[in-house]
Structure formats: structure tokens, C-alpha cells
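Per your request, structure below.
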């Protein structure tokens, strides 16, 4: 017999009242969101180290791994899944740790080291190397509070430590305070959050981590991409763009190349005996917007670096010269000696971090490798651009082929540079074509194949670059730019060219 609509409504109301009484308004609110448009889980992890030596299991308690022959007995203990599901997990290499008392199962916990599914979020994940995902821990009622899970945890740590694994990872609902407390006692700490917003085809997943290493990657989840500023992620982006054989419209790429090159020549203080560092070579690897090779006759030594080895290999294959070299490096941890470079060029490199604090870390590294009086030419995504919210929405919807970090206003950029020790000499905004609009427009006119329309569109975009000389520049420019210097006795900041306001 089915339950009528009013009866279901009353049952839900009673359930809501019970949650409110037992867990509070916050828990009720997020459970409501979880049933509608928003779910999230915290990621918690701990290092795997062998458990301290002990006298062994207390009393008749023993720890073992579930075997296929024990599945029927296990199903009597936990009837949450069908028999074939348990057998399939074991066949795929998942391990279920059991605790027995006088032969009877009183506790279980599943672990996986490759791929798995987070049922609450309805998503598949792939674990990073050395990570063990722990889930579905359960203790029989009469054995709760008797350190049964601690005994299993000790055995589990010994088991995976001996096999070279480094971290245990679990997910927990943020409002589940009892579980949080027990995991904190076991040495776990929060390292990130994953979840989704929306329904059906409009559902978009998000993921955020506090560390440098991402413990897992969401698979087949709309709107997601591996987050973070790491080699693996940008290798992945490069491979995808190569497969699509499309990076940027040739006209827009040439316009970008020309504007960046003008900025560097006007601001860079280039010297025939100087050393220049470019903080990423994505342009040199992928498209016609590359400009590092154009500077070979103007600087003594050019170094192009990138966090992605795939990008570095591709850039080195496209450009070569006695004064030009490429290497893989992380801008947050530069492998260069202090005061190594006379000029550093950073064109939209430091706005791809998942953690905004990494901007300051990177700027301090660039300050370190610049010689006294050396110049930094930097551009970042412009937060004041009228179309920046549209660009962020497109990124959230998965329409941008790479991860975008925070965008910045000109005052925020000045503040970050000052906090890193730089003296800001000049600022501006460049590329006064709204990025999404410009890309979409060029695709449309090229698809129409009407030459006069293509030429008229290009002339309009070229004319728009004149907005840089107006007070509107920070509202129309795609990138905010700054010239900063590492102070030295011979540098007179009063000789700055002045800043637009």
C-alpha cells in the first residue's frame, strides 16, 4: 500500500521537527539543501604510520580481513547491500577489516586504494597514489565506546604501512559532530571539501583542497576538473587542448601576443646582458600568442618555466636558441639562486591557484630571485572588468577548458605586491575585448565566412584597445597589469611613470 501525499508530508514534518530538536537549525538547513540542490562533504586524512606496539587484542577480540567465503556471515551482520555487491568489491581489490568477539563479527570497515564511488554525492573518484580511502565503518551496538574501532585502526595502519601507503582518507558530513570528534581523536584533520550545486543536468560539482597534493580526483562529474596548481593537472589540460586542436583564435592570439610584448618592452628594462624569467610558457607551448622568442635579441639569457613538464616539452619543441632555455618548476618554490634575474615576466600565471594565499607566496619567491632594482611585469585576471562575473559563471558551468583562480582589482594587486616587498611603479589594464564575447564573436564570423564582416569585427576589436588610455581601462581590460621593482638604493621611486586611478 502506498503512502498518500498528505501522509508523506506529515512524516517529513515530524522528521524535520525531530532533527531540529536533536541536531539544531544548522543541521536541519543543510539536510534540506541536501535533499534539494546542494550537498557537500569534508575530506579528512591522517598520515599512515605503524601503530605503537601493544599487548595484542583485548580479550577474545581479533582483527582479520573479510574473505569471499565469509560473505554470507557478513551479510547477516550488515544487510545494507546485496551479496553480489560485496563479492564485487572484494574482486576489485577492496579490503574489509573485521573485528570479531569469540568468532562473531562486531565491527567492520571498508578500504579502497584505486577508484570508488561516494554514494551521498553520486560521484566516482580516483585516489591519488599512496592514498587509502576508508568508508562504511560500523560497530555493533553493544560494542560502541569500547575502543573496537581503535583496535581495527591500529591493525589497518600496520597493514597499509607495510605496503607503502602514506595517507588514510575519509569523507564526513560537516554537521556530524560525533564522527568528527572521534576522527580527530584518531589523528585525522580536515584537508578539503567536495560537493555539488544544482539538479539534474544543471548539477555542477566543486572540489577544494588546502594542501599541495590533491588526494582524489572526481570522475565523470559535470563542471569539474582536477583542481590545483600541479603538474598532473596542467599536463591533462595540455593533452585535451592538443586533442581538440584548438587553443585560441589566430587573430585574438596575435592581439594578445602584441599587447603582452608591448608591455614587456615598455616596462621590462630589457638589457643585452640581463636575464629574464617568464613564469609560464603555456603560450609558447600552445598558440600564436607566444612572445618569449621575440625577445632573444634583446636579453642576454631567457628562461621559460612551467609547472607542467608536458608544456615545457612542447614549448622547447617549438622554440630554440642559444639564449633561450626551458625548465619545469613551481613558481611557489623556484629552483633559482637569490637575485638571479634582472626581469621577471608573469602573464596570467598567478591567477590559477586554488588557494588565494599562494599569490603572496609566489610574489615573495619572485622578489627573492630578482636582483636589486630588477623589474617584475605582471598581469592577472581583472576583477573590475564588467564581464568578469560572466566569465566566472562560464568557468563554473565547465565552459572554460582550465581552472581559473581568483581575479584581482588593481588596488588588490598593488596591495599584494607591496606586501611582498615590491615598489609599484605603474599599473594599467590590457586587452579590451571581453574574453567570452570576443571568442564567441570570432567563432561566429568565421563560421559565416563573410570576409567583410570578419574584417570589420577585427577592426572594432583593434580600436577597442584605445580604451587603455582612458579612465574606463580597469572596467574594460581583461587583465590588470603592474610594473613593480625590487627596491635598491639606486632606484628612485619618485621617478615612476605614475599610476592611473
Amino acid at each position: 500500500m502506498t503512502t498518500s501525499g498528505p501522509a508523506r508530508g506529515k512524516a517529513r514534518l515530524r522528521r524535520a521537527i525531530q532533527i531540529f530538536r536533536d541536531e539544531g537549525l544548522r543541521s536541519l538547513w543543510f539536510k534540506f539543501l541536501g535533499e534539494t540542490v546542494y550537498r557537500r562533504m569534508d575530506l579528512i586524512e591522517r598520515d599512515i604510520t605503524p601503530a605503537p606496539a601493544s599487548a595484542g587484542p583485548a580479550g577474545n577480540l581479533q582483527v582479520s580481513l573479510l574473505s569471499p567465503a565469509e560473505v554470507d556471515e557478513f551479510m547477516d551482520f550488515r544487510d545494507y547491500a546485496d551479496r553480489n555487491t560485496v563479492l564485487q568489491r572484494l574482486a576489485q581489490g577492496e579490503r574489509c577489516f573485521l573485528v570479531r568477539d569469540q568468532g562473531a563479527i562486531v565491527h567492520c570497515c571498508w578500504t579502497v586504494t584505486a577508484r570508488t564511488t561516494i554514494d551521498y554525492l553520486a560521484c566516482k573518484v580516483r585516489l591519488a597514489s599512496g592514498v587509502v580511502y576508508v568508508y562504511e565503518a560500523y560497530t555493533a551496538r553493544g560494542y560502541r565506546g569500547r575502543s573496537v574501532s581503535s583496535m581495527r585502526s591500529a591493525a589497518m595502519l600496520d597493514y597499509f604501512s607495510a605496503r607503502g601507503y602514506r595517507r588514510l582518507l575519509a569523507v564526513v558530513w560537516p554537521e556530524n559532530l560525533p564522527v568528527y570528534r572521534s576522527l580527530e581523536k584518531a589523528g585525522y584533520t580536515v584537508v578539503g571539501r567536495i560537493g555539488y550545486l544544482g539538479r539534474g543536468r544543471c548539477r555542477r560539482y566543486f572540489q577544494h583542497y588546502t594542501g599541495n597534493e590533491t588526494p582524489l580526483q572526481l570522475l565523470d562529474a559535470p563542471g569539474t576538473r582536477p583542481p590545483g596548481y600541479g603538474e598532473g593537472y596542467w599536463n591533462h589540460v595540455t593533452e585535451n587542448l592538443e586533442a581538440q586542436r584548438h587553443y585560441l583564435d589566430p587573430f585574438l592570439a596575435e592581439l594578445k601576443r602584441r599587447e603582452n610584448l608591448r608591455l614587456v618592452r615598455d616596462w621590462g628594462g630589457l638589457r643585452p646582458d640581463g636575464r629574464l624569467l617568464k613564469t609560464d610558457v603555456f603560450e609558447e607551448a600552445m598558440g600564436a600568442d607566444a612572445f618569449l622568442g621575440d625577445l632573444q635579441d634583446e636579453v642576454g639569457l631567457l628562461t621559460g618555466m612551467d609547472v607542467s613538464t608536458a608544456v615545457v616539452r612542447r614549448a622547447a619543441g617549438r622554440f630554440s636558441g642559444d639564449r633561450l632555455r626551458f625548465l619545469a618548476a613551481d613558481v611557489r618554490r623556484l629552483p633559482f639562486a637569490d637575485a638571479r634575474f634582472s626581469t621577471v615576466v608573469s602573464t596570467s600565471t598567478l591567477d590559477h591557484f586554488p588557494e588565494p594565499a599562494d599569490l603572496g607566496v609566489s610574489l615573495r619567491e619572485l622578489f627573492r630571485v630578482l636582483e636589486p632594482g630588477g623589474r617584475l611585469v605582471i598581469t592577472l585576471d581583472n576583477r573590475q572588468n564588467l564581464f568578469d562575473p560572466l566569465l566566472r559563471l562560464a568557468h563554473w558551468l565547465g565552459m572554460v577548458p582550465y581552472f581559473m583562480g581568483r581575479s584581482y582589482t588593481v588596488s588588490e594587486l598593488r596591495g599584494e605586491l607591496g606586501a611582498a616587498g615590491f615598489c609599484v611603479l605603474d599599473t594599467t589594464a590590457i586587452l579590451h575585448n571581453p574574453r567570452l564575447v570576443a571568442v564567441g564573436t570570432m567563432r561566429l564570423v568565421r563560421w559565416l565566412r563573410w570576409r567583410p564582416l570578419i574584417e570589420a569585427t577585427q577592426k572594432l576589436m583593434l580600436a577597442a584597445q584605445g580604451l587603455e588610455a582612458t579612465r574606463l581601462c580597469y572596467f574594460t581590460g581583461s587583465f590588470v597589469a603592474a610594473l613593480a621593482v625590487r627596491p635598491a638604493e639606486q632606484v628612485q621611486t619618485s621617478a615612476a611613470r605614475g599610476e592611473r586611478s
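The two ends are 72 Å apart (CA to CA).

Regards,
D.
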